[in-house]
């Protein structure tokens, strides 16, 4: 009898465990477990998670964004950076402003999820899988490049191998093991990933502008090599990017189209920004500080920053206008829409090309550098200046 009871308990336990397994395998109503390539590619379209690069405090520190006087009364990281307060305890203050860190690592986690699962994703060819993985590698590399320059020291060839960088995380699993690598290790990882993406078939024409194309891969390498002061490689990759797309937006044409608003100091009508998803200069569109959920206004800049623009700069004149409200005088943004503040564009490649040519010029011959720079100036500076 005792043996029969034990046997019955064992049978019931097996049935119960089997039922639990079946229950755990049931997908909750309204939920979906990603399995197809389309499921994983959808993570790349989640612009709120993967397409933001919030660097507000870098803008405050560089005096690139105006802060209202009423916002400077309390001791915050914004106040410390905007006023260059060296006595502020930035370690303590930073705990209240870690959006840059968490949002970029959230984007990296999405990319890691894609890279871990796409090789076995269903309803796809091998070429399609490689393409999605290439997108994820470029986006992850861009995020790491921002993080290492935001939270670690600037790259110096002599010290990069011994200077601490940021945590390198390649798994999407929460609390997966990771380590804080050196600046050199992270730069090597970033460069390797971009080159792998190019070799995997990063397409000349990507699925959308929020998917980095081949030009974006080259452009990101140009940016990174410039940061490393490797001017020959930066020049080479800037040239490769421009071979993919060398179009520049004509800001003089934009100025002429909206001159009645631009030239009237009392008009602050919002103008449609051309630097959106359809911007001809785009290699890769990324919101930066902007929102993916709704149109935003151009950032507001300090008077001192505005005064650094060259006279007759149509791009500046078309985007900002001096304004005084109560105790604040600043240049308000008159553009509105979606801004490619965090992506990659052709203009940057022209400027990288110009800088590299200037730094490598022999016999003080800067004519080639000026040719690259003047290509940009022709679309920016008013012809009557």
Description:
This protein is mainly alpha-helical. The chain has two domains: 37-202, Serine Threonine Protein Phosphatase 5, Tetratricopeptide repeat; 242-385, no CATH class. The chain has helices at residues 2-24, 37-41, 47-50, 56-61, 77-82, 90-94, 99-117, 126-151, 183-199, 214-227, 231-244, 251-257, 259-262, 303-306, 314-317, 346-359, 367-377; strands at 164-168, 179-182, 271-272, 282-284, 296-297, 320-325, 328-333, 335-337, 344-345. The strands form four sheets. It has a three-stranded mixed sheet, with no helix packed on it. A hairpin with a 2-residue loop joins β6 (320-325) and β7 (328-333). α7 (99-117) runs antiparallel to α8 (126-151), α10 packs parallel to α16 (346-359) and α16 runs antiparallel to α17. The longest helix has 26 residues, at 126-151. The radius of gyration is 25 Å and the shape is globular. It starts with a helix and ends in an 8-residue tail after the last helix.
**Kindly state the mean pLDDT as a whole number?**
92
Q: Give the H and E element order.
A: HHHHHHHHEEHHHHHEEEHHEEEEHH
Number of strands: 9
Output the radius of gyration. Answer: 25 Å
Note the overall shape: globular
Distance linking N and C termini? 105 Å
Oligomer status: single chain
Structural class: mainly alpha
Number of discrete helical segments? 17
CATH topology of the largest domain: Serine Threonine Protein Phosphatase 5, Tetratricopeptide repeat
Could you name the CATH class of the largest domain?
Mainly Alpha
Low-confidence spans: pLDDT under 50, at least 5 residues?
Answer: none
Strands in their spatial order, largest beta sheet: 3-8-5
The main sheet comes to:
3 strands, mixed
């Amino acid at each position: 009898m005792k043996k029969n009871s034990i046997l019955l308990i064992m049978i019931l336990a097996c049935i119960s465990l089997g039922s639990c397994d079946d229950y755990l395998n049931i997908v909750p109503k309204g939920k979906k477990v990603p399995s197809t390539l389309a499921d994983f590619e959808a993570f790349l379209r989640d612009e709120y998670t993967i397409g933001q690069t919030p660097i507000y405090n870098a803008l405050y520190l560089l005096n690139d964004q105006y802060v209202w006087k009423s916002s400077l009364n309390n001791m915050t990281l914004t106040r410390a950076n905007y006023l260059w307060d060296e006595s502020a305890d930035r370690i303590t203050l930073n705990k209240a402003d870690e959006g840059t860190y968490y949002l970029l690592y959230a984007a990296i986690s999405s990319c890691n999820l894609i890279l871990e699962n796409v090789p076995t994703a269903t309803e796809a060819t091998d070429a399609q899988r490689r393409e999605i993985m290439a997108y994820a590698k470029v986006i992850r590399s861009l995020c790491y490049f921002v993080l290492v320059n935001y939270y670690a020291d600037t790259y110096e060839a002599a010290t990069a191998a011994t200077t601490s960088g940021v945590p390198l995380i390649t798994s999407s699993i929460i609390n997966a093991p990771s380590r804080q690598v050196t600046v050199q290790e992270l730069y090597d990882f970033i460069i390797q990933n971009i080159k792998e993406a190019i070799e995997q078939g990063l397409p000349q024409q990507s699925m959308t502008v929020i998917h980095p194309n081949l030009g974006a891969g080259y452009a990101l390498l140009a940016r990174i090599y410039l940061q490393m002061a490797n001017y020959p490689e930066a020049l080479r990759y800037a040239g490769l990017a421009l071979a993919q797309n060398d179009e520049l937006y004509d800001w003089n044409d934009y100025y002429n189209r909206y001159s009645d608003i631009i030239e009237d100091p009392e008009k602050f009508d919002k103008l449609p920004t051309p630097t959106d998803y359809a911007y001809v200069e785009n290699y890769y569109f990324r919101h930066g500080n902007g929102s993916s959920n709704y149109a935003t206004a151009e950032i507001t800049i300090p008077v001192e920053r505005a005064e650094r623009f060259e006279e007759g700069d149509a791009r500046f004149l078309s985007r900002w206008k001096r304004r005084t409200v109560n105790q604040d005088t600043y240049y308000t943004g008159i553009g509105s829409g979606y801004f490619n503040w965090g992506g990659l564009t052709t203009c940057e490649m022209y400027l990288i090309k110009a800088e590299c040519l200037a730094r490598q010029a022999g016999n003080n011959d800067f004519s080639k550098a000026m040719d690259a720079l003047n290509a940009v100036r022709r679309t920016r500076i008013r012809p009557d200046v």
